């Protein structure tokens, strides 16, 4: 159809053709592909957050919930020493776990990327093997490694032999940090490895040709260019660590309790959902601010290093 004939066609027909071409465009087809995933994420992620946010402004009245708007739960979450101290301890533990995990993961990722050769896939496969087992089983294994010998003691007592359990490294903050560091090690290795794989090796060769030694070329070329992987590893480890309540409960004891244990108690035995929701929202906001600050600090340090 010529342009003159198309101009002469009725207005509704032209609008129909316009809508048809819009539906057949790449943008419309792309949206049709992502829309199921978007709706799935909306239902499973956004809706629960909205529900928790709404509960945080209500009040628990014995077995019923008073839906009168109030900020009392946030006042308790931010001013009560027990919750404030638990939040600070959780943030400190998450920072320690993130630091030790990245420090241990970086050399492994560096070796696989630069010296793994054709066996890189095998190395990555071996790293993921421990994570085929249950998370709870790995935590219980660390409980035994760190000194828990209750099962052994019960067997010895049956033979008339008594032995006191050794808990020098168990039921404290150190036990929580060690266990969580191992639990999240693979999740730090993989993003760092991907970041190292993207580095152009000719840049390192150029630094060597210009007189840089291995250490200087690493500090000036490899490390700054791998910062995106380091940042990803820190965020992947730090954010979920704050919300872990299984590990502190099993290996932390009284000295290793974290804010997630208090939140779990409010939704469980205490049956105070509004306070638990307020603690959850407060923790989420504080962790978001801490993660943003960490990213800014690391990127600023990387720019200065260049």
From TrEMBL:
It is a multi-pass membrane protein. Belongs to the binding-protein-dependent transport system permease family. CysTW subfamily. SUPFAM superfamilies: MetI-like. The lineage of its organism: Bacteria, Pseudomonadati, Pseudomonadota, Alphaproteobacteria, Hyphomicrobiales. This is ABC-type spermidine/putrescine transport system permease subunit I. PROSITE patterns: ABC_TM1 (PS50928). InterPro entries: MetI-like, MetI-like_sf. It comes from Pseudaminobacter salicylatoxidans. It is found in: Cell membrane. Its main location: membrane. GO terms for cellular component: plasma membrane. The chain crosses the membrane at residues 38-58, 91-114, 120-137, 144-163, 175-196, 217-239, 277-298. GO terms for biological process: transmembrane transport. Pfam families: BPD_transp_1.
């Amino acid at each position: 159809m010529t342009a003159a004939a198309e101009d002469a066609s009725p207005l509704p027909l032209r609008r129909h053709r316009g809508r048809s071409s819009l539906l057949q465009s790449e943008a419309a087809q792309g949206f049709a592909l992502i829309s199921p995933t978007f709706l799935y994420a909306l239902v499973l992620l956004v809706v629960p957050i909205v529900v928790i946010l709404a509960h945080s402004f209500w009040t628990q009245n014995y077995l019923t919930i008073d839906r009168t708007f109030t900020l009392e739960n946030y006042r308790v979450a931010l001013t009560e020493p027990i919750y404030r101290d638990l939040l600070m301890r959780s943030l400190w533990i998450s920072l320690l776990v993130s630091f030790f995990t990245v420090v241990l993961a970086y050399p492994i990722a560096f070796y696989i990327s630069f010296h793994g050769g054709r066996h890189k896939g095998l190395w990555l496969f071996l790293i993921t093997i421990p994570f085929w087992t249950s998370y709870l089983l790995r935590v219980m294994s660390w409980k035994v490694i760190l000194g828990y010998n209750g099962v052994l003691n019960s067997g010895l007592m049956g033979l008339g032999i008594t032995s006191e359990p050794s808990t020098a490294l168990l039921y404290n903050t150190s036990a929580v940090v060690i266990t969580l560091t191992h639990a999240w090690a693979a999740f730090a290795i993989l993003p760092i490895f991907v970041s190292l794989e993207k580095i152009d090796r000719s840049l390192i060769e150029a630094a060597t040709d210009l007189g840089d030694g291995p250490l200087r070329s690493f500090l000036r070329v490899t490390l700054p260019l791998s910062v995106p992987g380091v940042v990803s590893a820190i965020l992947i480890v730090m954010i979920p660590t704050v919300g872990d309540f299984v590990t502190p409960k099993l290996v932390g004891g009284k000295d290793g309790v974290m804010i997630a244990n208090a939140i779990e108690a409010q939704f469980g035995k205490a049956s105070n959902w509004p306070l638990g929701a307020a603690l959850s929202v407060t923790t989420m906001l504080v962790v978001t601010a801490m993660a943003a600050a960490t990213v800014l600090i690391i990127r600023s340090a990387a720019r200065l290093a260049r």
